[in-house]
User: Fold these one by one.
Assistant:
Number 1:
Amino acid sequence: MSPAPVEMVVRTTRFGTLRVMRDDTITFAQGLYGLEDCAEWALLVDSQDATLGWLQSISRGEVALAVVSPRRFVPDYQIRASQADLKSLHLEDTNSAQVLVIVSKDEVGLSLNLKAPLVVNLEQRRGVQLVNSLDQPLQYRISGETSLKRIA
């Protein structure tokens, strides 16, 4: 008999109190750039915008990152990574990896970080942020008419 799933209560500044199952968290063993102390994350779907997701830190309730599939805005987006970069994901097939990029907002508008994508093995619940060896921008500006209205 397998042990009962473990539920965690995460108090966040953006979403209030969340109940997250331990089995539903994604582990970024090395953390993310600038957030190396945040290894455990919950991937949340935005109920008001299906194109937008949120990575909510489990250990730091004040940290939530807006994420999207880069191909929604850059249809031919590609990444190049070494096998060593992807080893921690335990992927059987690299085509099964989910690629996400972080969305940021500044006084000019919204941008995508295409240089440092997040690669996630959803089956194994493991992720890694890597530096794309292809020439990609750190801030790829997206149109102000995008549906990503919930980023504040």
Number 2:
Amino acid sequence: MGEDAAVIEFPYAYSTGQLSVEVWLQCASDVYLVDERNFKKFQSGQPFRYHGGHYTHTPVRISILGYGRWYLIVRGKGQYQYRFY
């Protein structure tokens, strides 16, 4: 029998023109805010465009101008907390 792959869920929010996210990190991490099109690229392992980068401080604040669904991707070893506004 095969093992079930872990399903990772990524938080998201809808933007009607402007969206911000604040993220509290436990350790240095990559923090990305991506639109739906680039999220699909990320999931399939393709190069993708994002807002954010690598952060060693907390909190991280990222703001975008755009519409639609935006996903938060945090890659690091520690847990994190976030809020969209």
